[in-house]
Amino acid sequence: MKIFSQCQFQPLPGSLLLLLLSGSLRVTAIPSTVNIEIPVPAKDALLRSLDRNLVSWSIQNRDLPMFTRSKLLENLFKALATNIGIGQSVRLGGGESDKTTYGSDITITADKYRSGYYGAQAQGNVTLGPNYFASFKEKYAPDTRYIWCLNLINTTNKFDAAISTAAGVLEYLGDELDLFEIGNEADFYGSKGFRDSEWDASMMLPEWNYIADEIQKNSPNKTVRFMAGGFANPAYIVTKDFDIPGIIAAGYQSSRIPWYSMHLYPQSGCSGAVTIAPLLEHNTLSDILSNYIPQVAAAESVGAQFAIGETNTVSCVGRPGISDTFAAALWLVDYVLFAATIGIRRVYFHATTTGSYSPVIPINYSLDSGNYSTGVLPLSYGAYFISEVLSFNDTLLIMQIEGGNDTDYSSYSVWDETNKLRKIVFINLQSHNSSTGGTNPATPDTEVYSSSGPRPSTRVTVATPWEPGQELSLIRLQAPGSNSKSQVNVSSFTFSEKDGSVTNNLVDTIITVKDNGNVEFDLLASEAVLVQHYSDVLSNKHPTKSGSKAADSTVNGVVMRTRGANMSISSVLVLDMKIMVSAILVSALLAFI
Ligand SMILES: *[C@@H]1O[C@H](CO)[C@@H](O)[C@H](O)[C@H]1NC(C)=O
Ligand SMILES: *[C@@H]1O[C@H](CO)[C@@H](O)[C@H](O)[C@H]1NC(C)=O
Ligand SMILES: *[C@@H]1O[C@H](CO)[C@@H](O)[C@H](O)[C@H]1NC(C)=O
Ligand SMILES: *[C@@H]1O[C@H](CO)[C@@H](O)[C@H](O)[C@H]1NC(C)=O
Ligand SMILES: *[C@@H]1O[C@H](CO)[C@@H](O)[C@H](O)[C@H]1NC(C)=O
Ligand SMILES: *[C@@H]1O[C@H](CO)[C@@H](O)[C@H](O)[C@H]1NC(C)=O
Ligand SMILES: *[C@@H]1O[C@H](CO)[C@@H](O)[C@H](O)[C@H]1NC(C)=O
Ligand SMILES: *[C@@H]1O[C@H](CO)[C@@H](O)[C@H](O)[C@H]1NC(C)=O
Ligand SMILES: *[C@@H]1O[C@H](CO)[C@@H](O)[C@H](O)[C@H]1NC(C)=O
Q1: Residues lining ligand 9, Cβ inside 6 A
Q2: pLDDT by residue (tens digit) across 204-231?
Q3: Measured on CA atoms in the order 318, 321, 324, 325, is the torsion positive or negative?
C-alpha cells in the first residue's frame, strides 16, 4: 500500500471556494497609495510573542540523509540560524514514519542511506540502523534540533517498531532531540484500514500512552517530551475528535505534552486543479488560518503551545509553476506572520528531495513529469526574509496593523517587551507576471506568463511613534515577478545555487523618519518590505560572505549600506562620518581662502 501523508484530498470549505471563485472574477488591486497608522501603546491583548523558530522544517525521516549530498540545506540553515540566534527546528516525519522500524544490528551503510536507498522503494517499509544517524550527524548547521515522528501503525510485538526506533533516536540524537510524535496523521488510520473505523482519540490514548511510557522507562535520565496531534485534516474538516480540543478532552494532557500540532495543505495537488492565485490572496489565507484559533486556545488552556506541524503550498510534493515561484515566498511570509498573530507558534514547511515545494533541491533526478537538479527555490528567500524579521537580541511581539490589510496586501507591527515599536512589515501581494526569471533548473519548466503594462507601484505611508530624523533600514523581498522561479533576492542577498553559501551580501536602504513621525516607502506589486531602526540591524549578527567588508554607497540620492563579514560596521560608519564631516569643514575652510 502506498501512502503519502501529503497526498490527501482536502476539499476547501464552501466559503473558501466562493472566495477563490470571486477572486478570479474580480479584478482587485492594491491602491497606489496606502496610509496606515500604528497607534501607541500597542493593545496588549493583540500582541503575541514571536517564536524564533516560527519558520521550521519538516522532512521525511528517510530523506534527510539525501539532503546531505549537497551543502545547500546546511548553508541555508546556517544563514537562518545566524539571524535568529538559535538553530533550526526540524521535524523528521511524514507518511514514511508509520512504515519505519529500527534495529541496532542493521548494517546498511551511511553512504547507502545518502544514496536514496529508501527513497527509491517508497512502497516498502523503512528499516533504520545506527548508520542512518551517522549519515547526517555533523552535516547540519550546529544547534539544529529535531522532532521525531514514531510509527504508531505497526502494533507487532507491542509496538516494538516505535519503541526500538525511539531508543535509537535517543542514543544517537541525544539532546538534539526536542520532542517525539507518535503516529503521523492518525485521524486517517480508521478510513485507511489501519484501525477499526470507530477508532477515535480515546481508543488511541492507551496505545499512545503505552509507547510514551515505555520510551520514558528506557531513558530514565532524560525527561522525554512529545508533540501530540499531527492530524491530516485541517481544522475546518475535523473527523471524529481528532483535533486539539478533542484529544485534550480524551485525555492527552500532561506536562510531557508541551506541544500540539495539526497539518495543513491549503490546496491538494493529488486531485487536480491547483492555481497560483490563492498564494497571493491575504483574505483566503487569513480565513483558512482563523479556523485554528480554537486549536491554539485549547493548547494554551493546558499550558502548551500549538504548531502547524506539516504544511506547504500544495499537497503531494507541490506543483511546479506554483510551489516553486516567488508567490510561494510571499505566501510563506504572510502565512507565518499572520499565524503568529493568532498564537500559532511555529509552522513546519514540508520538504522532500523530489518536491517543487522544498526550499532547496539537494540532488539531480528525473521523473516522467520533468527533471530536477540541485538548487535553491524562492521559498528559501521567504524563510530568509522572516529570519530578518525575527533577528533581535530580545523577545519580540507581533500584531496585525489595524486597517492595514486587504485581499492584495497585509501589514504587521513588531514590538519589544517594553512595548516599543521595533519593526514594520508590509507585504504587497498584487500579482505581476514577468518573463524574466521564469525558469529554474532545479524544477521542471512551466508556462511563463507575462503581465501587460508596467509593474504597479504603491506608496505606503505609516504613521509611527518613532522619533523624527531617526535612521531606518529598509529591506525588500523581491523578484522580477510573482511567477519568478529564479532571480529572487532579499535586498541583493543571494544564496549560491551550488552550495547555498552567501554570494551577495544584503544591502540596507537607509531612510529616515519624517518630521511628523511618518515613514514612507514605495513598493512594487509582489514585493515585501521590512523597516526597522538601522541601529538594531547593527546590534545583531547577520550571515555574510566570508571576508567581505561593510560598505557605504549612494544610489540615485538614496543611501545604501552593504553588510560585511566585519559587522563592527557601526564604528566604521561613525569613522566615515567624522572623516566626511572634517572633509566638509576642510573644503568649507578652503572655500574661504
Ligand atoms: C516490509 O518489508 C518486508 C521485507 O522487505 C516486506 O516483505 C513487506 O511487504 C514490507 N511491508 C510493507 C507494508 O511494505
Ligand atoms: C512491524 O514491525 C516489526 C518489528 O517490530 C517488523 O519486523 C515488521 O516488518 C513491521 N511490519 C511492517 C508491515 O512494517
Ligand atoms: C543514568 O545516569 C546514571 C548516573 O549518571 C548512570 O549511572 C546510569 O547508567 C544512567 N542510565 C542510563 C540508562 O543511561
Ligand atoms: C530529462 O532529462 C533527460 C536527459 O537527461 C531527457 O532525455 C528527458 O527528456 C528529460 N525529461 C523531461 C520530462 O524533460
Ligand atoms: C545536475 O544537473 C545539472 C543541470 O542539469 C548539471 O549541470 C550538473 O552537472 C548535475 N550534477 C550532477 C552531480 O550530476
Ligand atoms: C540588546 O541590545 C541592546 C542594544 O545593544 C542592549 O541594550 C540590550 O541589553 C541587549 N539585550 C540583551 C538581552 O542582550
Ligand atoms: C483586515 O481587512 C479586513 C477587510 O478589510 C477587515 O475586516 C479586518 O478588520 C482587517 N484586519 C485588521 C487587523 O485590521
Ligand atoms: C499572472 O499569471 C497567472 C497565471 O499563472 C494569472 O492567474 C494572473 O492573473 C496573472 N497576473 C497578472 C497581473 O496578469
Ligand atoms: C535583486 O532583485 C532585484 C529586483 O528583481 C534586481 O534588480 C537586482 O539586480 C537583484 N540583485 C541581485 C544581487 O540579485
Answers
A1: 478-480, 487, 489, 492, 494, 504
A2: 999 999 999 999 999 999 999 999 999 9
A3: negative
Whether 315 shows a pLDDT value over 90: the answer reads yes
The grid cell for 427 is 507585504
What is the 151 CA–ligand 2 centroid distance (Å)?
A: 10
* 253-263 average pLDDT score: 98
User: What is the Cα–Cα distance from 510 to 561, expressed in whole angstroms?
Assistant: 7
Domain residues for 412? 1-562
Flag whether 402 is in a domain. Answer: yes
Q: How many residues make up the chain in this entry? A: 593
* Cα–Cα dist 556/571, whole Å: 25
On whether residue 93 sits in a domain, the answer given is yes
Residue nearest to ligand 3 atom 11, measured at CA: 221
Q: What residues contact 267, with CB distance under 8 A and at least 6 apart?
A: 10, 274, 275, 278, 313, 314, 315, 322
Please report which ligand is nearest the Cα atom of 156.
Answer: 2
Q: What is the DSSP track for 42-96?
A: --GGG-EEPPTTSEEEEE-GGGHHHHTTSSHHHHHHHHHHHHHSSPPEEEE-SGG
Q: How far is 534 from 570, CA to CA, in rounded Å?
A: 10
Coil, strand or helix at 531: strand
C-alpha distances in angstroms, 194 versus 98, 308, 482, 543?
10, 24, 42, 47
Q: How many structural domains compose the chain?
A: 1
| Closest ligand 7 atom, residue 403 Cα | 14
Nearest to 80 by CA among 279, 376, 413, 509: 376
Q: Is-contact 538 567, C-beta < 8 A?
A: yes
Instruction: Identify whether 576 is part of a domain.
Output: no
Output the CA angle 282-285-287, nearest 5 degrees.
105
| Residue 243 to residue 252: CA distance in whole angstroms | 11
Confidence of residue 27 (pLDDT cuts 50, 70, 90): low
Atom of ligand 5 nearest to the CA of 364: 1
Can you give the CATH number for the domain in which 116 is found? 3.20.20.80
Report if residue 587 sits inside a domain: no
